[in-house]
């Protein structure tokens, strides 16, 4: 409940008598329920003394009492912003600031409830639902932030719909045979799995990363940085053949990478961004023994064996295996579908040149 205090409780940051008189008028009219008259007097004060914290709080209270929540919100926000720069405020002012915060939270809740009621959640499209969460502050905006190369004009999509790619059903259907080849490799030679981040690599751009030279996140490569690992492909011929029908993003010395990616129990890959936004990362989950998840931007996906996941790794992402056994996916990268054939050739040439220049 609003308490209309004394003029001294709501300090005017000026010694001008006319402003003090105006403030007394504003208080008197507020006590009499003349919200419009009080608001007019307060706006006159604030036109001359815009940093008058007491008048801002009183204007918020008066506007709230009259049902003008927009004006109340504006006044309360201005008061809270000003108060952040003025420590050691007197108790009556602190009480007014607490009231302002509570009412702003109330307005936000009412606003969200009204907008949420326009279209029931189960009847919304996915993108509209996300836009509403962003509007109401329930989600951050996550955008592509590649660490090496940015290609303009590509859509900001966190997870792609696998159903939009004609090669996905055939690859998913081959999950059992790929799983068999993976299990054979695991049984024969686990030493072939190397730490995903090694001291000579640029992954995540952090040589002091906690996963550096750590087999908690490890890899068995079929293709590595654009070069085929012949010995490993020979050990997994069905897997290698299955990927021949996939639009891998070939760029000499750079792409693709195709690997069995291992996360041991409890392993956490912290938030990071990928190198280039001209590719998409794909996961075909092969061994998922329990809860394990991948967050891309504002969306979190839980891996399911045999169900492909396609995402933009230049949007901040992280992953964790919360199961008590190892999680393994077949990880590979493909061209973004929005790129033309000419653009793919240009990008491949450029990335190859960048790689050669870096080596020299």
Automatic annotation (TrEMBL):
The reply on keyword Cytoplasm is no
> What SUPFAM superfamilies would the database entry show?
Clavaminate synthase-like, TPR-like
Domain Aspartyl/asparaginy/proline hydroxylase, by residue range, is: 173-337
GO MF term list: dioxygenase activity
- Protein keywords: Dioxygenase, Oxidoreductase
An annotated GO cellular component: membrane
Task: Please indicate which superkingdom the organism of origin belongs to.
Answer: Bacteria
> Which Gene3D superfamilies does its entry note?
B-lactam Antibiotic, Isopenicillin N Synthase, Chain (2.60.120.330), Tetratricopeptide repeat domain (1.25.40.10)
Q: Which family does this protein fall into?
A: Belongs to the aspartyl/asparaginyl beta-hydroxylase family.
The name of this protein is Aspartyl/asparaginy/proline hydroxylase domain-containing protein
The species this protein belongs to is Hyphomonas atlantica
Q: What is the lineage of its organism?
A: Bacteria, Pseudomonadati, Pseudomonadota, Alphaproteobacteria, Hyphomonadales
